[in-house]
Amino acid sequence: MGEILGLDHAAVGVKDLQRSLTWYRGVLGLKHMFADDPMFNDGIAMMGVNHIPLLALLRLPSSEEPLQGSREQRGHFALRTKPEDFSVWRATLPDLLRRHKAHAGQSLWLEEQDYGQQRSLFFQDPDTNEIEVAAWFQGEPACKGV
Fold it and tell me: VOC domain location, by residue (predicted)?
């Protein structure tokens, strides 16, 4: 069996690709990667940081809606930040969400969770995809064997 190196990216379904590109740039500071590559421009946009892809925004067919249901049913993806930046995210995220509200029905919900060694902020993008910004305060987790 080959070795798994880590998570490559998460795929996120969105109704309006351009709106989502703008939102993910404005709220999370992600960059549109491979913008000139035709393989990543027809219904898909890769977003990332420091030349590392994190998200594939996938345009949903017009007949489909974003995932519905409970938080547990829909799931979420988490982006890691440094412990020293967590308080910055906590302080600035409410205003970022307000300033980048993409449509009247978009939620400004924000929830903080303290898991002891990890702290997290949960919120939603314009298509109700749940996002977590997390920081590890007692050392980053290490994976010992798969």
Answer: 6-136
Please check whether residue 59 is in contact with residue 17, taking contact to mean a CB–CB distance below 8 angstroms.
Answer: yes
Tell me the one-letter amino acid at 134.
A
> Buried (b) or exposed (e) across 109-145, using 16+ Cβ within 10 A?
eeeeeeeeebbbbbbbbbbbbbbbbbbbeeeeeeeee
Please state the pTM of the whole predicted model. 0.89
**Interacting residues of 22 by C-beta distance below 8 A, sequence separation 6+:** 100, 102
* pLDDT, tens only, 39-70: 888 899 999 999 999 999 999 999 998 888 78
pLDDT band at residue 93 under the 50/70/90 scheme: very high
Amino acid letter at 21?
L
Q: What is the dihedral sign for C-alpha 108, 109, 114, 118?
A: negative
Domain residues of the chain, as ranges? 10-61+75-136
The domain 10-61+75-136 is placed in CATH, from the list 3.10.180.10, 3.90.550.10, 3.40.190.10, 3.40.50.150, at: 3.10.180.10
